[in-house]
Amino acid sequence: MNKHALVTFTTLLVICSAQAQIAPSIEWEHAQGGSLKDAAQDVRQTADGGYVVAAWAESEDGDVVANHGSTEMWLIKFDGMGNISWRKALGGISGDGGQAIQQTTDGGYVVAGGCGSNDGDVSGNHGSSDVWVVKLDDMGNITWQKALGGTSYDVARGIEQTAEGGYIVAGETLSNNGDMTGNHGGYDAWVVKLDGMGNITWQKTLGGTNYDGAYAVRPTTDGGYVIAGDTFSNNGDVTGNHGDHDAWVVKLDAVGNITWQRALGGSDADNAHAVEQTTDDGYVVAGSASSTNGDVTGNHGVYDAWVVKLTAVGNITWQRALGGSASDHAQAIQQTTDGGYVVAGSAGTNSGDVTGNHGGSDVWVVKLDDMGNITWQKAMGGTSDEEANAVRRTADGGYVVAGRTNSGDGEVTGYHDNMDAWVVKLATHAGKNGVEEPVMGSFHVGPNPSPGLIRIRSALPLQNAQLTLTDALGREVLRENMRGTSTTLDLTSWPRGLYLLAIRSEEGTSSQRLVLE
């Protein structure tokens, strides 16, 4: 090797080393379930620093108590160290399940899923399966419940509390009676706006004459909503389908009218399971792609996890197909405080972008930068199959992941049988075993805990730094510039609880927990 080639090769190694970062380690993990099949569908950090999980459970033993029969909506509350605070099984004698959960502003929870029952905890079922929305207090006791739907099959996949205290729910419907009107044929995506007591304010069925469905819904900064799912249609509300079925993203105004829609994909099967509005007022979408044409480039084989960045009006900024030679999928995505993204799903390979697979399909967590390039990736599980259905960044700078496991070895402990819900807490980026991004010099926050008037002092003068504050639910609640060595925040009127305070500059990022009491 000549001198010039050696210098070039060394430079490339330095660049690659600077960009590649160590994946965070597992802080704790729990397999929860019994002798039958159980799986976690969603997880959120709570204001007390713990975590709440929405799941479904077939089991009537082990960790599952008070199952009414068949499949139940199952809720698990952890404290911040991963210890169980409480568990609740909700439903009746037929099939019921939880798909999405959120802590509400009153400290309780709202859960959405499906109910086939019309007894036990369920009343008002219209027939077959209904969308089921349950409001709980802080201990998981039912405050109210609503079965929404028609005489055919209906189910909710996503729910979010809205600014005025109501709820937006999204899923799919085969009905065209009862609470549903305007079905275009077959399954439609269904979006319903509820008031604070679960009464319908408005509802919209969206789609065409083939199958259409929504997997996620998010409120947007303009007072509207964005949904993500998939579509087999190319008529009705759907235009631009590339063939087979496409990922489908729909922007709605405040009363559910379509502002714009985009069918994304190629000539094979593609879908979207998650969407989030980004800080630039665009959107990021995550799902799966088996296509190798159309909007999809870089597919590694079979299915890839697929991430698409959209502008505010739904045009593609960039897309990334992530995976290896087998089937890989993305089920969840969230923007991170550094402007990048964390993605979670499954990886059935140990090639391409995937390393460390334990056998079968693993839970796969991928950290991307703001252009979709991989910063780090982590495959977690055992020798059988695992999958992640949700990922959330946490107030300490780490991540919590929820899904399912069929393994009783590898990184899984406490496995029961058949299939368990699996919850994994990944360590903060500042932990000794892993980093998320370069860490700059420390800063002092005082007093901490604080009644609200906080002084922040940096060890070094800052020129172009950005200060962000994220609440315990992972929502960015403050963003402002910081210069010099100190600044003061007046948070005396803010809700009490746990926050993550981060300062990002050209030198890197540093973050600390902040407690308002």
Fold and architecture overview:
- The chain is mainly beta.
- It contains one helix and 33 strands.
- It folds into two domains: 26-426, YVTN repeat-like/Quinoprotein amine dehydrogenase (Methylamine Dehydrogenase, Chain H), CATH 2.130.10.10; 443-516, Immunoglobulin-like (Sandwich).
- The strands form eight sheets. Strands 29, 30, 31, 32 and 33 form a five-stranded antiparallel beta sheet that branches.
- It is globular and about 65 Å long.
- It has one helix at residues 3-19; strands at residues 26-32, 38-45, 51-57, 72-78, 84-90, 96-103, 109-115, 130-136, 142-148, 154-161, 167-173, 188-194, 200-206, 212-219, 225-231, 246-252, 258-264, 270-277, 283-289, 304-310, 316-322, 328-335, 341-347, 362-368, 374-380, 386-393, 399-405, 420-426, 443-446, 453-471, 476-490, 497-505, 508-516.
Helix/strand layout:
Blueprint: H1 3-19, E1 26-32, E2 38-45, E3 51-57, E4 72-78, E5 84-90, E6 96-103, E7 109-115, E8 130-136, E9 142-148, E10 154-161, E11 167-173, E12 188-194, E13 200-206, E14 212-219, E15 225-231, E16 246-252, E17 258-264, E18 270-277, E19 283-289, E20 304-310, E21 316-322, E22 328-335, E23 341-347, E24 362-368, E25 374-380, E26 386-393, E27 399-405, E28 420-426, E29 443-446, E30 453-471, E31 476-490, E32 497-505, E33 508-516
Antiparallel strand pairs: 1-28, 2-3, 3-4, 4-5, 6-7, 7-8, 8-9, 10-11, 11-12, 12-13, 14-15, 15-16, 16-17, 18-19, 19-20, 20-21, 22-23, 23-24, 24-25, 26-27, 27-28, 29-30, 30-31, 30-32, 32-33
Global mean pLDDT = 90
What CATH first level of the largest domain would be assigned? Mainly Beta
Q: What value does the Rg take, in angstroms?
A: 23 Å
Uncertain regions spanning at least 5 consecutive residues:
3-19, 430-440
- Can you count the beta strands? 33
Q: Classify the helix fraction into a percent range.
A: under 10%
Instruction: Specify the overall morphology.
Output: globular
CATH architecture of the largest domain: 7 Propeller
In terms of quaternary structure, the protein is single chain
Helices and strands: which structural class?
mainly beta
Largest sheet: 5 strands, antiparallel
Structural domains: how many = 2
CATH homologous superfamily title of the largest domain: YVTN repeat-like/Quinoprotein amine dehydrogenase
